[in-house]
Structures are given as C-alpha cells and as structure tokens.
Input
Amino acid sequence: MADRIQSLNDVTPHYDVILCDVWGVLHNGVDAFADASQALATARKAGASVVLITNSPRPNDSVAIQLDGIGVPREAYDRIVTSGDVTRLLIKQGPPNVFFLGPDRDLGLLDGTDAFPAKEKDADIVVCTGFYDDENETPEDYRDLLMRFAERNLPMICANPDLIVERGERLIPCAGAIAAFYETLGGETRIAGKPHQPIYEAAMRDAMELREMVDIDRVLAVGDGMPTDVRGALSQGLDLLYISAGIHARDYMNGETTDETALVDFLASHQAEPRWWMPRLK
Output
C-alpha cells in the first residue's frame, strides 16, 4: 500500500520536477483548492519545477487564463501542457476537413492546423473535444451519429481523454466517454493526452527546458483519475502521489473520511501502486 503523507512538503526533497494534474487536484471546475496551489507554490520555492499536465482540449495559454479566473495563482506552476497542445499535432497529420464534435468555445483547437470544420457528409475525420451539452447528454445520445461515422471508417481524434471530471459536487462526462463509446461501435480513435505517451513527452521537454537535466527518478506525478493520471504516470515509470478525494472518492470515502481498507481494495482492483497518497493536495 502507498504511504499516506500529510503534506506535499513531506516528499518535496525527493523530487526536482512535479507533473501535476489540474481538474480534480487544483480545482473542481467551479472553485480552486487554495491549499493545493499553496503546496505547489511552496514546492517551487524549495527548488522544484512544476509542470501542470491536463487533459483539457484547450491550448495551454487558454488554460492559464481559465485558471486565473478560477483562482489558481500563476505562482503555483512554471508551465502548462495540455491534451489540446499535443492533439494539435494529430490534427495537423490528418485530413483538413473535420467534423468538430464539441462546444464552440473549443474551436480554437483548430487554429494554426490548416484544418477546418466541415459538415458531416464532407468530413474525413472527427475531432471530439466533448459534449455539446455535458450537463444533460450521455454518449448514447450520439449513437446514430457515431454509427454513421463508424460505417464510413472515419477516425476520431479525442482531444480530452478524461471520462469524467468534477464540476462542483457533480461528475460531468468528457470527450473520453464519447471516444470509448465510439470504439465499442467499431470506430478508430487517436489520442495523445493522458494516459498516452505524447503528453508526457511534451511535459518532460518543458521540464528539461526549465532544468536542463532531469532524472526520471526525481519526477513526481500528482493526480486523481485512475484511467488517465494513474495509468499514465505508472506506465511512464513515474512515482505517483494519488489524490484520493477526487473522482473516485465514492468508491472508498464516507464524507471526509477515507476507508483505507476500501482504498487498498480499490487500488488493487486496478493493479495500481502509487508511491504516496493523500485526500487533497496540500
């Protein structure tokens, strides 16, 4: 079982670089977690470099502005790497006429890629950033559309591999849920965000720009999502600090109390072995 820590400061001396998830660790989509930002700011003052690594489909500069609005101070991090950043490379490699599946606010993802939104009948590829209405829709609402895409063998580029995220007290589905459903219908997906390697390669490039030399044994990943943060960090051979009060809290928490036996069973059921854990980053 992973060791529980009381503060990020307990383990900061072991690490030069912290790759920290955003949604679920620094905020819940509505409110910032002040203790988490302070913990990262303190780690930076102690000499660590902090790279935020998020499955947001937006470019990093847009995420920085979003974090400003929520209340995450820029003192908490050095760089941001997003799924949107690495997904743009996939878009550039594909055909230019894309069916854009997601809210209009995410259309900036196509900027500078030579790709453009096309009607369903004219599209050669699908770019999915999320639901049109993530408050009320489920992947099943897209069945007919996705079946038509699958029948035409259109690949889907998924810009946000997260299945769900916290939004306040609710869990909201993300583009990853649509992509997973598309695969069950026989569709092909292309994904560069967590848990896949391209986003970690990009984050490590940023880390090396900050520090010149990076020893992977001195890199700590922080996250709460089992299929993305946890699976990605462990597949890259990184030490992981698991934030237990995130999207999986219902599996082993009663209110603010963690049932450690249930947590052990949960992690074992996913064959996950984080190095450390704590309910919320602080």
User: Anything to note?
Assistant: The chain has two domains: 3-84+195-278, 88-191. The CA atoms of residues 216 and 238 lie 7 Å apart. Residues 3-84+195-278 form a domain with the Rossmann fold fold (CATH 3.40.50.1000).
